Amino acid sequence: MGRGQTLAATCESQYPRLVGMLGLYCGDRELAEDLAQEALARLCRHWPRLPTPDDAERWVTRVALNLAKSSFRSRATRRRIIERYGPSMARSHATAGVTAEALAVRAAVAALPERERRVLILRYFADLPVADVATLMRCPDGTVKTLTAQGIARLRSAGLEVTDD
Amino acid sequence: MTDVRTLLHNSAPTPRRAFDMAEIRARARRGSIRRVVSWFAGIGIVIGLGVPVGPGVVVNADRDSQDAIVTPDGGATRVETADGEPVAGRRPDVERDASRAGRVGGAATVNPTTTVAPSAPSAPSSPSAPSSPSSPSSPSAAYASGRSCSVDNRGLSAGEQRSCRFTATATGGAYLHSGGGGEPADVSPTGEVSVTRDGVTTKYQMSDAALFAGDKSVGCGQKIIKPGDVVEVVLTEPAAGGGDAVWTLGAGEGWGCY
What we know:
Number of strands of chain B: 15
Oligomer: heterodimer
Largest interface: A-B, 67 and 47 residues
CATH topology of the largest domain in chain A: Rna Polymerase Sigma Factor, Chain: A
Strand order of the largest sheet of chain B: 5-7-14-9-10-11-12
Shape of chain B: extended
Order of helices and strands of chain A: HHHHHHHHHE
Number of domains of chain B: 2
Mean pLDDT of chain B: 60
Structural class of chain A: mainly alpha
Order of helices and strands of chain B: EHHEEEHHEEEEEEEEEEE
Radius of gyration of chain B: 20 Å
Number of helices of chain A: 9
Radius of gyration of chain A: 16 Å
Strand content of chain A: under 5%
Number of helices of chain B: 4
Strand content of chain B: 25-35%
Number of domains of chain A: 3
Low-confidence stretches of chain B: 35-39, 48-54, 61-140, 209-219
């Protein structure tokens, strides 16, 4: 498989993963799709400089989350999205093929403080080990663990029945 | 009870838009063109104005109390004691800004009594303007009133700094973040936000997502600024260079933990 084909294959495999990750982070599927495409476009531009294609996943994960973080910085935007995906919307969207439970989880995750949200998504959705999450977030391993515990506690207090791991 | 991994995987949205490699490639090409255009536009501003104003610095002043436009600082280093006295480093950039007063295009600092539209920073009418922070008996008189300001690292070389400052008219926080834009480097730019209140300066050191006040990690700067505080924001590109990702450090209203 040539490097060009590898790029296309990498993008195709990363696209649903990025949309899922960004969708949880932002609470907005359309925004997630847009950000995922932008992250992959940047991957295309950066591709020749990647040491190996295996580095692509980590690189694009980081770029995607940075893009999301930036676009999600406005508290007004966040409030809008939480309202949009809040409990009332969870009920009204249940007919759109998404379960009310899934929407409730998305709303609870979107309501987490940014760092807790990022840690939970990187650890449990992107399935990265603590050390990798710490590297991505440029903080000690202990901070990742603390944020994880805080995030899970907050999900529980939001009414979700969830175990640690 | 469900474990977090299953919960997230079951709840994550799946793409509704089908994967389209051609669209992604087209987007990549558009991005490359935009970056080249931005680069030339930046060069044009520098040539046109004589000094590098504009890119990288945003000051959101009060509409009825805009009295200064702050330019990017090319490398002022300032170390303060707790009472805000500069004790080391090069000349504070406000002095350099004042020394630019009268130069055509030297839109650096204006007399605090002058009102300037933010979109058209003009040369100051008087070089007398703000008092130097080297004698900050009344720091609030030295800095423009404003609600927030932010700087980014576009165009900064390794080790260079960019700063902005203002006298706060609203409550706010501080945050350093990357908007992506390129290769994430291993070492990100660092930020420092100095908040002087009643003559006491508190410095908040910021890395990517961590902000520290003294020895106590507070994660980010939420409501660390109150009206009347004198705020200085300094973004420093790492000595090893920070990759080509764009980083922005901002303080004031609208900035903080979220």
